Amino acid sequence: MLGLPASTEIRKVITKKKVYERFETEMSAERRKSFDADVARITLVNEISPVSVNIPEGENVKSFFVILIALRKKDYDKQNISFIAKMFGQKLLLILEYEEQHSLAIWQTRLIQQDWTAPENLHVEIVGLDLDRVWENIVAGTAGVVVAQGQSLDEQLAAQQKRQKLEKEIAKLEKLAWAEKQPKRKMKLVQSIKALQAQLEDL
Predict the structure, then answer these.
(1) Within a domain: residue 1?
(2) Statement to judge: residues 127 and 170 lie in one domain
(3) How far is the C-alpha of 194 from the C-alpha of 186, rounded, in Å?
(4) Domain annotation covers residue 163
(5) Domain total for the chain?
């Protein structure tokens, strides 16, 4: 899958029972019900390691897995995916599957997901002098960021998240401003929009 080398391929089903056992004290009956309603199947499909790709381990990344998660619905609860990420306790590249569509995602302090597409459109390059660099390139490519000089990957991802929130809030206020009839309220909305736009420009 993803155009990865055959040497990385594995196929191991992870039962939902194992997830429930691992988080026995953290998952309430209601959370388990939600998890079961969202997740149909969890399968390990690739392992990227010095042995499988002939690239040395990094200081932080010794290896990472690619996991295929078959979903029962598209509007899943992200918290349920976080349990899968926490269970492995390491870097994970996720392929989310719903019916005939796939989406590439990563868990890097938070869930970052690409748009849904046909499975044949998903492709990942294993590029880097060590697995730290390989992982950083995969995260940057999945998230659509370019790591700037002097900034860490996590700092860049945090800035991207803040930018997206600001853009969403600006769009919301602009819609309200267009619909507002009272001049004073309209002016306040416009001022709020300008303040948020100034924050956006500083990122």
Answers:
(1) no
(2) no
(3) 12
(4) yes
(5) 2
Domain span including residue 190: 153-202
Neighbours of 41 (CB within 10 A): 14
Q: Could you tell me the CA-to-CA distances from 92 to 20, 106, 171, 202, 203 in Å, in that order?
A: 19, 6, 33, 32, 28
Residues in a beta bridge with 96? 69, 103
In this structure, the answer to whether residues 137 and 163 fall within a common structural domain is: no
Tens digit of each residue's pLDDT, the chain (203 residues): 789 999 999 999 999 999 999 898 888 899 999 999 999 999 999 999 999 999 999 998 999 999 999 999 999 998 898 888 888 877 889 999 999 999 999 877 778 888 999 999 999 989 899 999 899 888 888 877 666 566 666 767 677 777 778 788 888 888 888 888 888 888 888 888 888 888 777 76
* Under 8 Å between Cβ of 69 and 94: yes
